Amino acid sequence: MAETVEKIKLLKSSPDLSTATYQIHDESHTIGNSLRWMLMKNPKVEFCGYSVPHPSENVINVRIQMYDNVSSLDALISALDELDKVCETVEDGYLASLREGKFERWVERT
Amino acid sequence: MPSETVDSRRLVGVLAERVTNVSSNDFPGHYPGEDHSWDLTNFQKNLTVKVQRLSQHSIDFDIVGVDASIANAFRRIMIAEVPTVAIEQVFVWNNNTVIVDEILAHRLGLVPLNVDPSLMIMKGPDDPPTDQNTLVFHVDITCERNPKAPKGTLNPHELYINSEFLSSHLTWTPAGEQEEVFADNKPAPTNSNIVLAKLRPGQQINMELHAVKGVGKDHAKFSPVATASYRLLPQIKIIKPIPPSKAEKFQKCFSPGVIKIDPRTQEVSVDEKNVRNDTVSREVLRHPEFAGSVELSRVRDYFLFNVESEGPYAPERILPEAIKVMREKLAVIRQAAEALRDKSTTIDSDVVMTDS
C-alpha cells in the first residue's frame, strides 16, 4: 500500500514548467502557507498561491507562475532550501537563547 | 524594544471597530524601487529568538522577524505533528464498574505517558505489534470492603480498598528488549494521580492496554502540548498627554502594569517591559475623553509564543522537535521535487533523441 502515492504530482503545466500546479500529498497549510510565502519572496515568481482543495483529501495544490519562462520547479526547490535555512536559523537562535539562560525561571504548581 | 523605533509598516492597527494593515507586504514588487527578495544574511541579522520564562510545565519565548506563515507552521507542528506515545488499544477482560468500556478506553487514551517517543517506531495500520512499536500495560484491580475501616466513617477511601482506579494502577509489562531500552525511565503516566474510574465493593477492572506512537493530527491524545499559541506584541502610543485628573482612569483601561503614572507629576507613560502583558482590550477607545489621544497596534512580526507541555517532552524541547519535524517534511518534498525534475529532463532529452 505504501509508496504507491507520489509525494508531488504535476497537475497543469506549460511544457517549459514556467507555469505549473503541483499537488503535494500528505501536506497541509503548515507547508502550504510557508512555501507560498517563500516562493513569493522570489522576484522571478509572478504568482504563487496554494489551496487545500477538499478538507477530506490530504493534499495541497501549489500554483506557481514565473516571469521570463524560468522553470517553476527550480524555484520550488530553492524555496524549500531556503525554508530549511529559516528553520535552522530559528533553531540556532532559540538554542543560543536557552543556553545563555537569561530568562525567568519559575515553578508551576501542579 | 523601544516602540518609537518600530517601523510603521510592521504595525497592525487596532481601531475601535476595525483592524488595519493586517497582511504582510514585504514581497518583491510591492513597493516600487525597493528590494524585498529573500536574503538569508538579512534574515539572520533581523531575527531575534529569546526565551522569556521557563517553568517545569511551560515556556514563553519570542520569535521576532519571521512571517506569520513560518510562526504558524511551528505552532501547527507543535500541536499536530510532534509524535508522542499514548494508549491506543484497550482489551477489556473484565469491567463491571459504572463506567462503560468505551468511555474508560477513551479516558485511558488521554493519559499522558512519560515515554520518550524517539525510543519507539511508528506502527503502521497493518504492522503486527512488536517490542519496538508497542508498549503493554496491565490493570487488575478489585474493590473490597476495608475490614479495618474506622467505625462510623463515610469516607470511601477508608471504607473500601481500591475505591478509585488511578493512573498509578497502570503496570508496564516489558517485552523483548524493552527492559534494557526503557531501563532508566520506566514507562508510566506522567501524573500518577489521575482518577480514571470509581469502584465500589465487588467491582473490578482487568484490562490489557497497548500504547503506540502517533501524532496529534490523528488524535489529540498524541499531542505533546496542552496549549501552543502565539500572539503579537501590543504597542501603545500616547499621542496627546493625558490630563493628571484622568490618569488613573486611563491606567485602568489597560492590563495591570502596562501604564505607569509618575507619582510626582502624574504624567502617564507606557511601561515598555510590561506592554506585552496588555490584552489590547480597546477599552480606552470607548471613552470619549481619550479620543485621539492614544493609538493601539500590534507588531506584525513579533510573536510571543506560549507553550505548555504535558507528557514526555520538557517544555523547552518542544520547539526544537517541531523544527526537526518541519525540516524532515521539507527534505521529503525536496527529494520528490528533484525526482520530478530528473524525470522531466529525461523526457525532454527523449524528445530530442526522437527528433534527431
UniProtKB/TrEMBL annotation, chain A:
InterPro entries: RBP11-like, RBP11-like_dimer, RNA_pol_Rpb11_13-16kDa_CS, RNAP_AC19, Rpo11-like. GO terms for biological process: transcription by RNA polymerase III; transcription elongation by RNA polymerase I. Transmembrane segments: none annotated. SUPFAM superfamilies: RBP11-like subunits of RNA polymerase. GO terms for cellular component: nuclear DNA-directed RNA polymerase complex; RNA polymerase I complex; RNA polymerase III complex. One of its GO terms (molecular function) is protein dimerization activity. Its main location: nucleus. CDD domains: RNAP_I_III_AC19 (cd07029). It comes from the Eukaryota. It is found in: Nucleus. The keyword Transcription applies. Residues 20-92 form the DNA-directed RNA polymerase RBP11-like dimerisation domain. Keywords: DNA-directed RNA polymerase, Nucleus, Transcription. It holds the Pfam family RNA_pol_L_2. Belongs to the archaeal Rpo11/eukaryotic RPB11/RPC19 RNA polymerase subunit family. PANTHER family: DNA-DIRECTED RNA POLYMERASE I,II,III (PTHR13946), DNA-DIRECTED RNA POLYMERASES I AND III SUBUNIT RPAC2 (PTHR13946:SF28). This is DNA-directed RNA polymerases I and III subunit RPAC2.
UniProtKB/TrEMBL annotation, chain B:
It is found in: Nucleus. Residues 58-336 form the DNA-directed RNA polymerase RpoA/D/Rpb3-type domain. One of its GO terms (biological process) is DNA-templated transcription. GO terms for cellular component: nuclear DNA-directed RNA polymerase complex; RNA polymerase I complex; RNA polymerase III complex. Keywords: DNA-directed RNA polymerase, Nucleus, Transcription. Transmembrane segments: none annotated. Belongs to the archaeal Rpo3/eukaryotic RPB3 RNA polymerase subunit family. This is DNA-directed RNA polymerases I and III subunit RPAC1. It comes from Psilocybe cyanescens.
